[in-house]
């Protein structure tokens, strides 16, 4: 029967892995240095330790191996036959370990390189993050990017994700979450819909309008969220359409088929171009955001650190905020401007 490491009894000394564990790595490194330099003194200088420390490490290794590795005289130090055999066998392995350590240091402090896996929500990832990647690779051509668009919560371990971009409100305290920008939620309609049906002035008036909803990846219809008199208010209005793709919700609103609550990044350009109009801005929630998430601030590889810095600066440079002040009457200038925009619609309705 073949024994695994767990199956073997503690007293079994035939396990090569267990027996090699007893050998001092410091002793092996000291042995390699002495063999290369031909002197305990020069080996000590190379390793940055005292000569006695090198001598003790080698002596301990010889005791563990039960073999003499060096012939020492007052004038010279040379390898024994056992020492030559040990050097030929272990030197390549030590060099690979040294290279592995150098590679790890370079990942943290050297030029950014390697593979970067990013997870992002479908809408924000496609519309905001993906267009930034070409510019990022112009600055860091040695970083290969894998972008995953998914609405599910990110499992950093099983999905091997380096950085995740998430929307809304985050509840996982085990991750570092850096808010890039606020996530404005705006109730929008097309000018055609506004002309025909008017726009709600109060949240309670939504029940008399044709609403379009979004179904989340869990299968649940997303709440419409508001802040009324300082308190959070949620509702799921009766809808004529429900889509599990936010872009389809936006397209339906643009076509004049109803109103919907949409993320600001999806509709800001449409609002500024006059293709959509917003309402109930004074009740927009204030506690949502777009977050850049990762597992730890410590020992962060250079490829992750530069991506965090680049995306943070690039996203904040985008003008994704339609309302400059959220909450009841925080932006009077904006509210007056919106009322002026909608005045022609209300006049035509009155006629």
Can you put this structure into words, describing what you see?
- There is one protein chain.
- With 351 residues, the chain is of the alpha/beta class.
- The chain has three domains: 18-109, Arc Repressor Mutant, subunit A, CATH 1.10.10.10; 117-180 and 290-298, D-Maltodextrin-Binding Protein, domain 2, CATH 3.40.190.10; 185-287 and 321-350, D-Maltodextrin-Binding Protein, domain 2 (3-Layer(aba) Sandwich), CATH 3.40.190.
- The protein has helices spanning 16-22, 25-37, 40-47, 51-65, 81-109, 122-139, 191-197, 246-254, 264-272, 302-317, 332-350; strands spanning 70-72, 77-79, 114-120, 143-149, 163-168, 176-182, 185-189, 211-214, 224-228, 231-235, 239-243, 260-263, 277-279, 289-294.
- The strands form five sheets. The protein has a five-stranded mixed beta sheet with strand order 4-3-5-14-6, with helices on one face. The protein has a three-stranded antiparallel beta sheet with strand order 12-7-13.
- Helix 6 crosses helix 10.
- The longest helix is centred in the N-terminal third of the chain and has 29 residues, at 81-109.
- Residues 1-13 and 325-351 have low confidence and may be disordered.
């Amino acid at each position: 029967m073949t024994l695994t490491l767990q199956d073997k009894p503690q007293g079994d000394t035939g396990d090569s892995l267990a027996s090699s564990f007893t050998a001092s790595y410091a002793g092996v490194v000291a042995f390699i240095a002495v063999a290369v330099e031909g002197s305990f003194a020069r080996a000590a200088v190379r390793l940055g330790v005292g000569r006695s420390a090198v001598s003790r490490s080698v002596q301990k290794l010889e005791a563990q191996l039960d073999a003499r590795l060096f012939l020492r005289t007052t004038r010279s130090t040379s390898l024994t036959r056992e020492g030559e055999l040990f050097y030929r066998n272990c030197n390549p392995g030590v060099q690979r370990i040294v290279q592995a350590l150098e590679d790890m240091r370079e990942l943290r402090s050297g030029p950014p390189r390697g593979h970067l896996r990013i997870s992002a929500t479908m809408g924000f990832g496609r519309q905001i993050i993906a267009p930034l990647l070409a510019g990022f690779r112009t600055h860091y051509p040695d970083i290969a990017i894998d972008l995953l668009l998914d609405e599910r919560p990110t499992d950093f371990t099983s999905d091997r994700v380096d950085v995740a971009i998430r929307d809304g409100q985050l509840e996982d305290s085990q991750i570092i979450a850096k808010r890039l920008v606020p996530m404005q939620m705006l109730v929008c309609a097309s000018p055609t819909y506004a002309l025909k049906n008017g726009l709600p002035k109060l949240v309670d008036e939504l029940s008399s309008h044709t609403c379009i909803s979004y179904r989340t990846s869990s299968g649940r219809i997303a709440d419409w969220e508001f802040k009324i008199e300082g308190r959070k208010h949620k509702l799921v209005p009766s809808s004529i359409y429900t889509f599990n793709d936010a872009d389809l919700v936006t397209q339906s609103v643009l076509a004049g088929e109803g109103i919907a609550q949409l993320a600001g990044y999806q509709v800001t350009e449409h609002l500024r171009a006059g293709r959509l109009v917003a309402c109930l801005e004074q009740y927009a929630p204030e506690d949502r955001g777009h977050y850049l998430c990762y597992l730890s601030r410590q020992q962060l590889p250079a490829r992750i650190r530069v991506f965090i810095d680049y995306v943070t600066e690039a996203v904040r440079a985008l003008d994704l905020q339609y309302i400059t002040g959220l909450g009841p009457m925080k932006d009077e200038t904006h509210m007056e401007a919106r009322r002026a925009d909608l005045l022609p619609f209300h006049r035509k309705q009155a006629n």
